[in-house]
Amino acid sequence: MRNRTWLTLAFIIVLALFSGWVSLPGSDLDVRGFRAGHPIRQGLDLQGGLQVVLQARPVAGQSLDGETLEGTRQTLERRVNGLGVSEPLIQTRGADQIIVELPGVDDPQEAIGILQQTALLEIVDPLGQYLPPGTIVDTTLGLANDMPGASQVGTPEVTPSGSTIAATPIAEAPPPAGPVFETIISGADLKDAYVTTGNTGMNQVVGFELQGDASSRFFQYTSSHLGQPMSIVIDKQVVSSPTINGAISTQGIIEGVPPTEVDDLVIQLKAGALAVPLDVIQSRTVGPSLGQDSIDRSILAGVIGLGIVGLFMILYYRVPGIVSVIALLVYTAIVFAIFKLVPVTLTLAGIAGFILSIGMAVDANVLIFARIKEEVRQGRPLRQAIESGFSHAWPSIRDSNITTMITTFILYLFGNYTGTSIITGFALTLFIGVVVSMFTAITVTRTLLQLLVILGVVGDRWWFGAKTAPPVLAAPAAP
């Protein structure tokens, strides 16, 4: 019994020290950047940033199902990753909406523009005619009228790597062309898109690399159309119609893109085209100062709440109350360590869920201590009273916590379906807190109380909140 208590105590000490080390802020005592690589992830309401609600608008003849919406969400996620946004959240809501949360975004309009643009790249056969930049065309991949709008990327020219192809600029864009042009390759055929330097080595251009049979298909087309133009189309708008001076196989570059638009075009091409056009129906910007004020107020509320709860436990339950405060400190360190290691994006609602789980951890201790107190009043030895208190209180603690975890699971699923990050953050932090609270209440608190009895530190029943044991009445004499 004693050996098991000491072994459990050693495990608790190691766990508490590690959790405290992970949870501490700052970079002191870091080992190989481990703590720096696991910071607290702050949500939009704490860090500030942009929240956008996008509505899917299927074009004529297009059906919108769950697979199409999920594919669009994945495309948006790739684009956001290309923006370099820290801890973004992109999730579907209902049957036709996508919510995008971008913490720390400095230029909301630029981010919305990149999210909404389709950036469908096509290289089409203009049937031997020169299509000036700006011409709106219909292609075998779709009609121009089905597009929500064409992105303006200047009047670039496309050249194969290591060769030069000239393009003739024009002053004004002509009206849409009539015929439907065949698409030779599209953005789906791209293996990669990247920023590189042009043939002069002075300006930035967009490079691309083809994959699969697209390279051979493109080589056959360019080799059989030498001296003829081909048109580079983005979102059904011609951006260049260079003359083919040499066969092109796997790699090419798009020259003439304005420097401020090169990075954006690379992001869109790498992410691919949206499966369905999107409209912005709601956008909200949260300032970082508001988020910091929320953090400060939440920390103050948490400290005050913990202080009041700890004071009550100590005054009413005495030594067990002190033990519960120690267990709560271990609980807090473990939970914050889990938040960093999982990781969990912490929001205001998540902080509320964490504080609520502290109350549930205290509730478990109250059930245990009340039972121990009753056992002590009945005159049982302290060690037996502790074991009896835990064994009798455990079913109530188990059942209440399991029902709470089931509720948090339902809330998490509901929040995911509706795209409400407030609900999912609350449910996740509450679930983690409830699981850890069961461990600290049953293991940490129990081990510390057993240790006090083994060491003989508390031999008087008064330290457990009970008066002296009632006198044992003698059995009446037999007649």
How would you summarize the topology of this molecule?
Layout: H1 2-23, E1 41-42, H2 44-47, E2 49-56, H3 66-83, E3 89-93, E4 97-103, H4 108-116, E5 121-125, E6 138-139, E7 157-160, E8 180-186, E9 190-197, E10 204-210, H5 214-224, E11 231-234, E12 237-240, E13 251-255, H6 259-271, E14 278-286, H7 288-317, H8 319-341, E15 345-346, H9 348-377, H10 382-418, H11 421-455
Parallel strand pairs: 1-15, 6-8
Antiparallel strand pairs: 2-4, 2-14, 3-4, 5-8, 5-11, 7-13, 9-10, 10-13, 11-12
Describe the structure in your own words.
By secondary structure, the chain is α+β, with helices and mostly antiparallel strands. The chain folds into three domains: 2-39 and 287-464, Up-down Bundle (Multidrug efflux transporter AcrB transmembrane fold), CATH 1.20.1640.10; 42-114, 2-Layer Sandwich (Alpha-Beta Plaits); 119-273, Gyrase A, domain 2. The protein is 48% helix and 16% strand. The protein contains eleven helices and 15 strands. It has helices at residues 2-23, 44-47, 66-83, 108-116, 214-224, 259-271, 288-317, 319-341, 348-377, 382-418, 421-455; strands spanning 41-42, 49-56, 89-93, 97-103, 121-125, 138-139, 157-160, 180-186, 190-197, 204-210, 231-234, 237-240, 251-255, 278-286, 345-346. The chain has a five-stranded mixed β-sheet. Strands 3-4-2-14 form a four-stranded antiparallel β-sheet. Strand 9 (190-197) and strand 10 (204-210) form a beta hairpin. The two termini are 45 Å apart. 39% of the residues are buried. Residues 148-177 and 471-475 have low confidence and may be disordered.
